[in-house]
């Protein structure tokens, strides 16, 4: 990709493909009836059926769906994907709280997100790397392996990857990179992505950390590094429960706008995806995956190893924004996981692989018009006009008034009895 000199990456939190893109006009989303309403359902333990429903507003329940190791495997339910609603049941609340897993968003909730996906190519077979939550998935993202981790339950500062991380490789080969992260005193907190193998990357991040607001400045000045890794503020703008999801959408819009206005636009590739499904429903069963290495998962007491790391997690949204992105509402059906990002960086800069997983991952070139790139004829010479983010006063009001009744009345039916 000689015409691409800058790669920008942003990973948001905790939403499945169907939860965000199920109602998109293209791609493998919900099955719809003649009226355009989704037909997808999931059963409760009592036999009642929870139908997919649009979220009442852009605020999310504080009692979030579960995406932990056992919960994710229960939702997978041997490949039927019928365990989402049952999985999210808590012994301390009414069982119908599990119904939130069948909620979804539309262009009315997320106008910018839908506008971006209508213009630029999306992937409808991008799976997270493991049926688990944030930490193991982000470990796969930066090192091609989770090194036994299955839950958000390890000491980040003590964690170490003997095969290295992408940040170490970039340093080793003098490829410039910066981690643009929340405008906080970041030395007193952990949770930025380079911290997921902190023993490898903490010292390097001391020199490669910039405040998130600096990204917009560097993009405008044309001084972005070769690789920019953006971490949102995970407290309020990552789109994880119980956040108002339009706050995170506003961040995505700001990043895209900064790239589109940058003098580096014609040399830049922006990759957007999510770390895992967040407990929300998706109808596509995750496929088998290569074991990254010989390190088995370490599970919590009372849990099972299942297939280990031999299966991908649920689908997540993905968009590639570039002057050389494929046009005409392209959908990539190639199977990806988070190690596809590693594969792309490794093949771009001729870097070695870390594990069997990233060595064999599909890179992201199917999203790009390689003939246009070879000819230097951009498919998007300028950033198209996109809808504004949905963080309007009306949408933000639910941050005070609450997420509404979830699941909404009328969205649960009883099974037919003969």
TrEMBL record:
Q: Which GO terms describe its biological process?
A: phospholipid catabolic process
Print the keywords alphabetically: Hydrolase
Say if the entry is tagged with keyword Hydrolase.
yes
- Please list the GO terms describing molecular function: phosphoric ester hydrolase activity
State the CDD domains in the record. Answer: AcpA
InterPro entries reported for this sequence: Alkaline_phosphatase_core_sf, Phosphoesterase
Q: How is this protein named in the record?
A: Phosphoesterase family protein
Which organism is the protein's source?
Penicillium cinerascens
């Amino acid at each position: 990709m000689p015409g691409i000199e800058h790669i920008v990456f942003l990973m948001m939190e905790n939403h499945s493909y169907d939860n965000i893109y199920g109602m998109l006009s293209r791609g493998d989303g919900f099955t719809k009836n003649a009226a355009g309403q989704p037909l997808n359902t999931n059963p409760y333990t009592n036999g009642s059926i929870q139908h997919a429903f649009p979220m009442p507003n852009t605020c999310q329940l504080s009692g979030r769906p579960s995406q932990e190791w056992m919960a994710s495997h229960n939702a997978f339910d041997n490949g039927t994907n019928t365990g989402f609603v049952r999985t999210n049941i808590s012994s301390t609340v009414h069982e119908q709280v599990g119904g939130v897993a069948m909620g979804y968003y539309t262009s009315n909730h997320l106008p910018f997100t839908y506008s971006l996906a209508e213009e630029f190519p999306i992937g409808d077979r991008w799976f997270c790397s493991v049926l688990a939550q944030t930490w193991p998935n982000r470990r796969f993202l930066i090192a091609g392996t989770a090194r036994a981790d299955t839950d958000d339950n390890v000491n980040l500062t003590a964690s170490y990857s003997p095969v290295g991380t992408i940040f170490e490789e970039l340093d080793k080969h003098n490829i410039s990179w910066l981690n643009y992260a929340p405008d906080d005193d970041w030395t007193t907190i952990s949770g930025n992505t380079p911290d997921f193998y902190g023993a490898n990357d903490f010292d390097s991040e001391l020199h490669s950390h910039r405040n998130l607001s600096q990204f917009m400045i560097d993009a405008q000045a044309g001084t972005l590094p070769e690789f920019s890794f953006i971490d949102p503020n995970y407290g309020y703008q990552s789109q994880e429960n119980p956040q108002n999801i339009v706050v995170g959408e506003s961040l995505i819009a700001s990043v895209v706008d900064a790239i589109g206005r940058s003098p580096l636009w014609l040399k830049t590739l922006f990759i957007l995806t999510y770390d895992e499904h967040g407990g929300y429903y998706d109808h596509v069963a995750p496929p088998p995956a290569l074991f990254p290495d010989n390190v088995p998962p370490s599970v919590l007491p009372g849990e099972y190893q299942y297939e280990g790391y031999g299966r991908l997690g649920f689908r997540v949204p993905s968009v590639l924004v570039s002057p050389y992105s494929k046009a005409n509402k392209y959908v990539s059906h190639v199977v990806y996981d988070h190690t596809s990002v590693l594969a792309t960086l490794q093949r771009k800069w001729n870097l070695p692989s870390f594990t069997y997983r990233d060595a064999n991952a599909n890179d992201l070139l199917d999203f790009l018009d390689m003939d246009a790139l070879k000819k230097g004829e951009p498919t998007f010479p300028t950033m198209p006009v996109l809808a504004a983010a949905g963080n309007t006063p009306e949408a933000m009001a639910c941050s005070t008034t609450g997420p509404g009744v979830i699941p909404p009345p009328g969205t649960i039916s009883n099974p037919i009895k003969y």
